[in-house]
TrEMBL record:
UniProt-listed Gene3D superfamilies: lambda repressor-like DNA-binding domains (1.10.260.40)
Keyword DNA-binding: yes
PANTHER family: HTH-TYPE TRANSCRIPTIONAL REGULATOR (PTHR46797), METHYLPHOSPHONATE SYNTHASE (PTHR46797:SF1)
GO terms under cellular component: cytosol
InterPro entries: Cro/C1-type_HTH, Lambda_DNA-bd_dom_sf, TransReg_Diox_bact_type
A molecular function (GO) term: DNA-binding transcription factor activity
Species assigned in the record: Pedobacter frigidisoli
Family annotation (Pfam families): HTH_3
Sorted UniProt keywords: DNA-binding
Domain of life: Bacteria
Domain HTH cro/C1-type: 18-72
Protein name: XRE family transcriptional regulator
Coiled coil: none
Length: 79
């Protein structure tokens, strides 16, 4: 089980990775939100590590970015 500080660190790393992938694809947060059919504010909160997104939200983002879930979780030390 992750401690609260470890969870915060993982969420921030996940968000930073998402932001990097989005920028590599030359997408604004608004464009990604539209492609993924989720709220812009949710993209912002995920990228800044403020929320722990639901699996369905992560899958929408993966599909919108045309990447694999592994690409998105690459930042997280899951071993």
């Amino acid at each position: 089980m992750l401690s609260e500080s470890d969870e915060k660190e993982q969420l921030e790393a996940f968000g930073k990775n998402l932001r990097g992938i989005r920028k590599e694809k030359d997408l604004s947060m608004e464009a990604l939100a539209n492609l993924a059919e989720i709220e812009l504010s949710q993209i912002y909160r995920i990228e800044t590590g403020k929320i722990n997104p639901k699996l369905t939200t992560v899958l929408k983002i993966v599909k919108a970015l045309e990447i694999t879930a592994n690409d998105l979780f690459r930042c997280c030390n899951l071993e």
